[in-house]
Amino acid sequence: MELNVDLEREIPVLDWSRHLSERVEYMQSSAIRELLKLTQQQGLISFAGGLPAAEFFPLREIEEACRYIVRHEGAKALQYSPSEGHPPLREYLATSMHKYGVPAVPDNVLLTNGSQQALDLIGKLFIDPGDYVITESPTYLGAIQAWVAYQARFKTVGMDDDGMLVDEIEEAYKQVVAETGKSPKFIYALPNFHNPAGTTMPLERRQRLAEIADKLDLPVIEDDPYGMLRYEGEDITPICTFIPERTIYLGTFSKTLTPGLRLGWIVCPEVLVKRFVQAKQGCDLHTGTFVQYIAADICQRGLLKAHVRRLREAYRERRDTMLDALTEFWPDGSSWTRPQGGMFLWARVPEPINTEEFLKDAVAEGVAYVPGVHFYPNRDGGYHAMRLNFSYSPPHLIVEGIRRLGAALKRALEQQ
Ligand SMILES: Cc1ncc(COP(=O)(O)O)c(C=O)c1O
Question: Is residue 308 a contact partner of residue 164, using CB atoms and an 8 Å limit?
Fold first, then answer.
């Protein structure tokens, strides 16, 4: 049958807003993803994204894994698979989490499409419109984005160089109860190499947070994407170790293997895994089978550990390069955190400079960063701060980028 439709005709633009749900009003585009578009500009040195260094991606290992899997297990690896995740990978993760201090058996583990999906599923399971969640301020932008879509409100607690000020949690809790008559839904914490603050919570604070969560009967979301990327000192016991019955621990392969695989995991009580599975089935039925086979193959052959050792070396050098360059090139009155691991540090510039406004000067100089205010869920701070990523650019570009930023900051200060 021949249809008389002109495929080249101009297609009218409908007003879709009349058809969309009210929820859509609350959804925001990620400021960082928007910024990343800016950073496509030729020659720009970007400290903005949270990107791992692509030159270290284990391409050969992944190629070999793919070839092996397609040849020997292709029929299963390309088929639908359980919503909870590929059983050998759940087993591997349970064992490695256990060694790390997170009590887990395979039934406690659920594979997700990156930790970002875990954050969204948490929103889906826990947040009714108007509910409060307790977060640090600043906190991870992707969590804010995930939860505002469920119409969450944010009661924030401050931070110092040791991370979350956990003793502020009780007051935050009381304020929420006084205002709404309801408890906040959970505490969201980033104890290791915080994104964006670069801080690490010492053991005593983690224990204290666990006690407070227990006392207030609050669940804890422990988001730990960078835990394996430690450049100095010893691993610190996760919060989950103290209160596994009330912690939802989030891990990811994004920062260790590659982010493009989109593979993360949740460790939580088994009853909750079942709820997450129901929530996840409505999204995507299950995480990609093939990528789970790849990760399982690489982990089981011990290649991930070796790869992470290489990454630690390279990123430690980049962190040190950035810290040295900041000391050399930035104006007096600036300060920054000294991260023990991860990918970011948090830099504060002298007060007259607003980092959101200063960004256009920085981009004109060929450097990008993320202004601090974006990490404040209530946009009530971070005006004189910025997040700087040190994992993505090679050392010589880190020096050049920090030098350019320092020169632009000094110029801006002179003009005040
Ligand atoms: C704190 C934090 N949580 C979650 C994520 C999401 O990671 P992914 O979805 O790539 O696993 C990131 C990524 O930057 C992050 O920094």
Answer: no
